[in-house]
Each structure stands twice: as structure tokens, then as C-alpha cells.
Design a protein that fits this description.
Elements (H helix, E strand, L loop, with lengths): L4 E5 L4 H17 L2 E8 L9 H26 L8 E7 L3 H12 L3 E5 L13 H6 L7 E4 L13 E5 L6 H15 L3 E8 L6 H23 L7 E8 L2 H6 L7 E5 L14 H9 L4 E3 L5
Parallel strand pairs: 1-2, 1-4, 2-3, 4-5, 6-7, 6-9, 7-8, 9-10
Antiparallel strand pairs: 5-10
Length: 292
């Protein structure tokens, strides 16, 4: 996974600040370049007398975009000036506009904040994230609500939610590349969800699944231990949220998930488990594109 070109979608709201400061942290630690973008609706071309109103609308949009980017400049003034670009992009949908911009500028990852309507430290998927999480050609990184007010000084570890299957090896390789780039250890975790009932048949099946998960994790980690520290852990619970809470989390953890294997190749496409992980996570979550 490359982290040379980070694209941050910014709005002049707390969620925009959360995503922007997460993007700035990633850019700084990876030694990359940051592009801050605001997506505005297009001004329609209309004939006749309505052109005067169109001109006023265009002026209003330009004024709003400049004010938004000025706010962003204040937030990331500690980054070297030559490593930050500020752009305005027009599109009817903010998420689709960021997808378009990511292609145009060759972004390696797109970063945004959480939608409203969720408690601090959690992530909600709004319309912008939904568009990105079903079409982005590059990984999407989501900041929890309030992240800007409690952000760490640096990333401390990458945790990959691992599940053996198509694309699993590619996901581990991407997470390992990011860990090397950020100079942090890698942790591979498998979530084991059970009913919690003490029926012997279920317990026997759970034991077999646990042994299989441990073997899969060990095999996945083996090829990467030579270049970085790798931990493995099976997390158990009655739900995905409970399983995630069973792990110890550092302030500077970054959680990574693979896309659904049923989605388009080299696109982000959420599966059911990834959706549950995003909703339950208390750290930033990155969704990778689907790989072969």
C-alpha cells in the first residue's frame, strides 16, 4: 500500500476537522503529500435572464469554497507548505466527487470524518462515506467523531481484521506495507462470534474454529515477521462489537479491513462484517480495495 498521496475531503464542520487532522497525521508520519479538497455542487448553465441569478450563485459557491479552504489551512498550518494542496471540485455528490478526484490526482487513500448522529469515538456512515465505500478506487480511511480533540501524537500500531479467503493474502501484504511505512508493528486479529450457549456440539465446533483461526493467523504472519513485529490474536464474543472490545487498544491504533470478495476488483466494497466493524470500532478504520 502506498501512502505518498493522501486526499482529505473537508467540510467546515467538526467532522471535517476530524478527517483532516487524521489525514494530516497520516501524511506527516508517512512522509507523503496531502491534498485537501472541498466538493461543491456544480453551477448550472441556464439561458436568458436567469443567467444573472446563475452568476450570483457561482459567486456564492466560490466564496463558500474559499472560506472552507481557509478554515482548512488554519488546521494544518504545522505541515510544510509545499506538501499541501488545496482544491475545489464540483460534483452533485460529495462522495462521488471525491472518487472522481482520487482518480484525477492519483490519490493513494481518501480520508473523511464520521457522519453526525453517533457518540464520540464512534463512526457513522453517511451519504459521503457510503458513496466512497462502494466505489472508491483507493482505500478509504474514516475518523471517529471527535477524533481531532483526542488525536494521538502518532500512529502506534496497525491492526488488520483477518479472515482467510480470497484476497486475504493481499490484505495482509497491504497492511504490512503500511506498517513498514509508518514504522509501527502489525497485529492480525480474527473475530470469532458465537452464541455463547454451552451446548457440547457448539462448544466442539467453536474449539475447532478457534484452532483453525490460530493456524490461519500464524501462517498469515509468518511471511512478514522478518521485516516488522507481527502479533496475532483471536477475539471472541457474541457479537462483532463484543469481540472487538475483548482486545486491548492503543490510543494510536489504526484498524484495517478488507473489502468484500463479492465486490468489483480494485474498488472498495463493504461486506456485512466490515459494516459491523466500522460501527463498533473506537479507532480510525481503513477499508482496503478488493484485490485478487
Amino acid at each position: 500500500m502506498r501512502l505518498d498521496n493522501v486526499l482529505s475531503g473537508f467540510v467546515a464542520e467538526p467532522r471535517g476537522r476530524d478527517g483532516l487532522l487524521l489525514a494530516a497525521l497520516l501524511t506527516r508520519q508517512a512522509g507523503g503529500r496531502l491534498t485537501v479538497a472541498t466538493v461543491q455542487p456544480p453551477a448550472r448553465t441556464v439561458p436568458g435572464p436567469a443567467r444573472a441569478e446563475e452568476s450570483a450563485w457561482r459567486a456564492y459557491l466560490d466564496e463558500q469554497a474559499e472560506a472552507t479552504l481557509a478554515r482548512a489551512r488554519q488546521e494544518v498550518d504545522d505541515l510544510p507548505g509545499g506538501d499541501v494542496d488545496y482544491v475545489v471540485h464540483s460534483h452533485k455528490g460529495s462522495g462521488r466527487g471525491l472518487v472522481e478526484l482520487a482518480r484525477e490526482r492519483g490519490a493513494d487513500v481518501v480520508v473523511i470524518g464520521s457522519a453526525a448522529g453517533v457518540s464520540r469515538g464512534r463512526i457513522a456512515v453517511g451519504s459521503t462515506a457510503d458513496q466512497l465505500l462502494h466505489a472508491s478506487p483507493v482505500p478509504v480511511l474514516l475518523a471517529p467523531r471527535g477524533y481531532a480533540d483526542a488525536r494521538p501524537e502518532a500512529f502506534e500500531r496497525i491492526t488488520l481484521a483477518y479472515r482467510r479467503g480470497p484476497g486475504a493474502d493481499a490484505a495482509v501484504a497491504s497492511a504490512a506495507q503500511a506498517a513498514v511505512r509508518l514504522d509501527v508493528p502489525l497485529r492480525l486479529v480474527t473475530l470469532l462470534v458465537s452464541s455463547g450457549r454451552r451446548v457440547k456440539a457448539e462448544q466442539d465446533m467453536l474449539d475447532r474454529l478457534r484452532d483453525l483461526a490460530c493456524a490461519d493467523l500464524a501462517a498469515a504472519a509468518e511471511g512478514h515477521r522478518g521485516r516488522l513485529p507481527v502479533e496475532v490474536e483471536v477475539l471472541e464474543g457474541r457479537t462483532v462489537a463484543q469481540a472487538l472490545r475483548a482486545a486491548s487498544w492503543r490510543t494510536g491504533d489504526l484498524l484495517v479491513c478488507a473489502s468484500s470478495s463479492s465486490g468489483p476488483l480494485r474498488r472498495v466494497f463493504l461486506g456485512d462484517t466490515s459494516v459491523k466493524i466500522i460501527r463498533a470500532a473506537s479507532r480510525p478504520v481503513m477499508i482496503l480495495t478488493r484485490q485478487q
